[in-house]
Amino acid sequence: MEITLVQGDITEQRVDAVVNAANSSLLGGGGVDGAIHRRGGPEILAECRALRADRYAGGLPAGQAVATTAGRLPARWVIHTVGPVYAKSEDRSHLLTSCYAESLKVADSLAARVVAFPAVSAGVYGWPMDDAARIALATVRAAGTRVTEARFVLFGAEAYRVFSDVLARLDG
Ligand code: ADP
């Protein structure tokens, strides 16, 4: 599997699946979640509501992932995953690892080959970018998956630089 890094907006990626850093309500939020729902349109929210009424009545727990349509995005599916909120007092990194591992499992179940990821938990949820990048890249690198490209779409030059440095270190 190839890991690629791009600086840009995840909602513009022509891929099989876009991973969303959702919150557990699945009913939309700010950041990347807001951008995906805005650009993808109401079909995504309708499927999220149906998931809340059925399989995830209590919300989607942190570390898990579930797919919906991608609506009007140039992708086939959105894979919603809920990152952990960063906490200094408690190590929640297993939950962030799980977000990437579970998203790839969902991608495999859909036979998605090219998957775009944001830096889950590294926005409003407060995870330090370098640690978020280390967990993201190491987990995807180690995963047994049929995904052929994991594309990290970083919002801004600083996030892109951090991911590039961490990837270079993993490769080195
Ligand atoms: P979380 O609540 O999991 O922290 P956020 O959406 O707040 O999720 O942030 C996750 C990362 O996604 C942050 O680095 C943020 O800058 C980035 N981000 C926000 N909008 C977009 C977008 N349209 N495309 C790609 N990344 C985005």
From TrEMBL:
PANTHER family: GANGLIOSIDE INDUCED DIFFERENTIATION ASSOCIATED PROTEIN 2-RELATED, MACRO DOMAIN-CONTAINING PROTEIN. Transmembrane segments: none annotated. Coiled coil: none annotated. Residues 1-171 form the Macro domain. It comes from Sphaerisporangium rufum. Pfam families: Macro (PF01661). This is Macro domain-containing protein. Gene3D superfamilies: Leucine Aminopeptidase, subunit E, domain 1. SUPFAM superfamilies: Macro domain-like (SSF52949).
